[in-house]
Design goal:
Blueprint (H helix, E strand, L loop, with lengths): L16 H11 L1 H21 L10 H12 L3 H14 L2 H15 L15 H38 L4 E6 L2 E7 H20 L4 E2 L9 H6 L5 H11 L3 E2 L10 H30 L2 E3 L18 H24 L9 H6 L2 H20 L1 E3 L1 H9 L6 H13 L8 H9 L6 H9 L5 H9 L9 H4 L8
Helix pairs in contact: 1-2, 1-6, 1-13, 2-3, 2-5, 2-6, 4-5, 6-7, 6-13, 7-10, 10-11, 11-13, 15-16
Length: 463
């Protein structure tokens, strides 16, 4: 057997690449290296801008060229870094040499020794990860998440008046509306969205053990913490003043836990929609050319929601592993985080793929009011809750002498199917006030939905 051509090991880089490729701009090795070049370049510009160690500010044209070197980072630089790293055996050192070569090209050799000045590799890496993760979440993942949330919100409004039989413990229960049930998910996800949007992306730039020791040795008269804060914030990040060699990753833990929480809620949505499809509450819209089963031509399988379930599980497993690992670093530094953080893109890739499937899946289903109405009409016994509750109120008000209303309704309805006639005759014989009796006689499973429709209006209060 001849060997296959080199193949992607992850389905995210193979079968599912079109759905997740935008993340590769940020959370790939190349994206990380581009960010490293950006940080190294900005540190050079920052130091010379302060005229430290007798340097002079870099000319505007040269600043533009250096920044373009970072923003235009492409295949040529990727290949050159691979060549350099083959010798250095150190990824950040390879980036430093790449930047030095650019300085030589721009006739800026006089400031070459300010490249990577007083910086440990983690000073560059933590800022680079903060930048790439921030961009990936804000520019790729969150927009897709909001699209799904908006689609759910629209469905909630559309179906707010569509009564359906609820199923607590999988058994017929007090009716609700499909729109209200979708609104529950929107409310939950909206709150998590607020947490994710509020994440503070932290960065440190304080040397080998977070003490500014090398900085102070080079120039004891500078306020290095203030300079560090100014530099980190110039990158659009928040400054962390107290660290070991590494930025402690707590902001990453907060982000990954919140994202995993969103995944879990979306997983719950998928299992519910899958169940509603199975019950006939939603019908699936046939897609031209699609095959549901290789042997049963009638089938349309809810594959969008099944695919999303699986990818949400994978994403959360990775995110939770990241959160557990990244909170710990032995003493002042170990490298467990180095390998771990390289999987952030995989974790968000599976979540993004799930969001894509949910978005598409919601477009491929339609509510089936006939099935909703039929289920309601064959479960009149669920009105037992309403009847015994009204009797309790009538007894309290002195308009009834019925003893133990719950037991009476339990005897009438538990484990039994009754119809509208049975219930009407039972209500007619009750010892309750005329108004209460009229209200109960007018009640049907389809109208016993309480305030379900108007509760959708509370979606505006979710943040």
């Amino acid at each position: 057997m001849s060997p296959l051509p080199v193949q992607p090991l992850s389905p995210l880089d193979g079968r599912y690449r079109p759905a997740v490729s935008a993340l590769g701009e940020h959370l790939s090795e190349a994206g990380l290296n581009r960010a490293r070049v950006h940080v190294e370049v900005e540190w050079l510009i920052f130091l010379t801008g302060k005229s430290l160690f007798g340097s002079s500010p870099i000319g505007a044209d040269q600043v533009a060229a250096l920044r373009a070197f970072a923003t235009d980072f492409g295949q040529e630089q990727i290949d050159e870094l691979a060549r350099l790293e083959a010798t250095t055996r150190h990824d950040v050192k390879a980036v430093e040499y790449l930047v030095r070569a650019k300085l030589d090209e721009l006739d800026l050799n006089s400031i070459a020794e300010l490249t990577h000045f007083a910086a440990t590799s983690e000073d560059i890496n933590n800022l680079s990860y903060a930048l790439t993760i921030s961009d990936a979440v804000r520019e790729v993942w969150l927009p897709k998440f909001r699209i799904v949330l908006d689609a759910l919100r629209a469905q909630s409004e559309l179906m707010r008046d569509n009564a359906m039989l609820a199923h607590t413990h999988g058994q017929p229960a007090t009716p609700t509306t499909m729109g209200k049930e979708f609104a529950v998910f929107v409310y939950r996800l909206d709150r998590i969205l607020t947490r994710i949007e509020g994440i503070s992306y932290l960065g440190k730039f304080s040397g080998a053990t977070g003490t500014f020791a090398a900085h102070l040795a080079a120039d004891p008269d500078q306020n290095w913490p203030a300079l560090s804060k100014e530099f980190v914030e110039s990158l659009g990040l928040d400054w962390n003043p107290l660290t070991t060699q590494i930025e402690s990753h707590d902001w990453q833990v907060e982000l990954y836990q919140a994202t995993s929480h969103a995944n879990r809620v979306l997983h719950n949505l998928c299992t519910d929609v899958w169940s509603y499809i199975s019950m006939g509450y939603f019908r699936q819209i046939p897609q031209a050319g699609a095959t549901g089963s290789s042997t049963m031509p009638h089938k349309i399988n809810p594959i969008r929601f099944e695919n999303a379930e699986a990818n949400l599980e994978l994403s959360s497993a990775l995110l939770e592993s990241l959160a557990q690992t990244l909170v710990t670093s032995r003493l002042q530094r170990d490298l467990t985080d180095s390998t771990t953080q390289r999987n952030v893109g995989v974790a968000y890739g599976h979540s993004l793929l799930a969001l894509d499937n949910i978005e598409r899946g919601l477009r491929e289903i339609a509510l089936n009011p006939v099935a909703l109405d039929a289920d309601l009409d064959t479960n009149w016994e669920i009105l037992g809750e309403a009847i015994q509750t009204v009797i309790r109120a009538e007894v309290t008000a002195g308009r009834s002498t019925i003893s133990d209303p719950y037991a009476i309704l339990k005897e009438l309805t538990r484990g039994k199917r009754i119809n509208s006639t049975d219930l009407s005759e039972f209500i007619a014989g009750l010892d309750i006030g005329a108004d209460a009796k009229a209200r109960l006689q007018a009640l049907t499973p389809a109208t016993y939905v309480g305030l379900a429709s108007s509760l959708v209006d509370y979606l505006g209060d979710s943040k």
